[in-house]
UniProtKB/TrEMBL annotation:
Entry-linked Pfam families: HTH_18
Entry superkingdom: Bacteria
Coiled coil ranges: none
Record has Transcription regulation as a keyword: yes
Name assigned to this protein: AraC family transcriptional regulator
Keyword set, alphabetical order: DNA-binding, Transcription, Transcription regulation
GO molecular function, one term: DNA-binding transcription factor activity
Ranges of residues in domain HTH araC/xylS-type: 194-299
Length: 303
């Protein structure tokens, strides 16, 4: 797999114009203009750059990681360094919008270098893109216009600081708009929670817990065709609990049933639930229930 370590080499590969800055590029369609079109197809590739873009008119399928996404108008997409990208000639790039690409080293030594890692949407799959309202789109475009003005000006001692300040503002607004999107998609949130619970129930009932151990969150998300971070963020917004907390609740509920079988030791219960180390099971149980598995068994033992 090709891995582009510089922004210039990545843009050259895409057959896009060279950037005004070696670690930053800004493409912005205005009026009747279009964004420059990248190469028609690409096998899986990676690069060391962040990408923030708004695509208004794009048709076709793009593979992003393991996910295929059918573009819709007004999708705002965030791509982190070392994400795997792939597309073929079924994608029709009739682009209106903008595309900002910057090497991760562009942020080196700034507060944003650490803060950007906290924005979960850089870990979302492309089918979890941010869909802007017309009002939100105008706000974002205003910020991007400010970035472009500074980008096109002759660079001076203030340029980088000003551009990074605008990038910081852009990401804060994106975070706010994602919050709105979560709230507006209650039906989707409920559906994801149902899928999550159904997967765990089937996993437990099929005996895979004993055979394969406790499923990882990545494994569950992959089965649901959704990114791990988006799943956790969605459940957190909807229920106040992360995916790991929901998984633990399922395990504890299952443990309660097994603990009432007097012929099994606490260690046997732990192993049956997929725990490699019984003491960890006991600590988790006590943390969630306030009493140890032994105390629970004594309290609720059937006569």
């Amino acid at each position: 797999m090709q891995h582009f370590k510089t922004l210039v080499s990545y843009l050259n590969y895409l057959e896009l114009p060279r950037p005004e800055h070696p670690m930053l590029s800004v493409f912005n369609s205005k009026g009747d203009g279009n964004l420059p079109c990248p190469r028609e197809s690409s096998p899986p590739i990676m690069n060391d750059c962040y990408s923030i873009s708004l695509k208004k008119y794009v048709k076709g399928n793009l593979n992003y990681g393991r996910t295929k996404y059918d573009f819709t108008n007004g999708a705002m997409i965030f791509i982190a360094p070392r994400q795997v990208l792939q597309w073929d000639n079924s994608v029709v790039f009739e682009q209106k919008g903008f595309s900002i690409n910057f090497h991760e080293d562009f942020l080196k030594g700034t507060e944003l270098a650490q803060q950007i890692k906290k924005y979960g949407f850089f870990s979302y799959s492309i089918n979890e893109a941010l869909h802007l309202s017309p009002k939100e789109e105008k706000q974002i475009e205003s910020i991007v216009n400010n970035i472009e003005i500074e980008y096109q000006n002759n660079q001076d001692a203030f340029s980088k600081e000003i551009i990074i300040s605008h990038l910081d503002t852009l990401l804060k607004y994106a975070d706010r708009f994602y919050e709105r999107q979560f709230l507006n998609r209650k039906e989707l949130s409920n559906d994801l929670l149902e899928q999550f619970n159904q997967y765990l129930s089937e996993y437990f009932e099929s005996g895979q817990l004993q055979e394969k151990g406790i499923p990882s969150i990545e494994q569950i998300a992959d089965k649901m065709s959704i990114s791990q971070r988006y799943l956790s963020d969605t459940l957190k917004k909807e229920t106040g609990k992360t995916t790991m907390e929901h998984l633990h609740l399922h395990l504890i509920d299952e443990a309660k049933n097994i603990l009432l079988q007097p012929n099994k030791s606490i260690s046997e219960v732990a192993y049956e639930l997929g725990f490699e180390y019984p003491p960890y099971f006991s600590r988790l149980f006590k943390k969630k229930e306030g009493i140890s598995p032994t105390e629970y068994r004594g309290k609720y033992k059937l006569n």
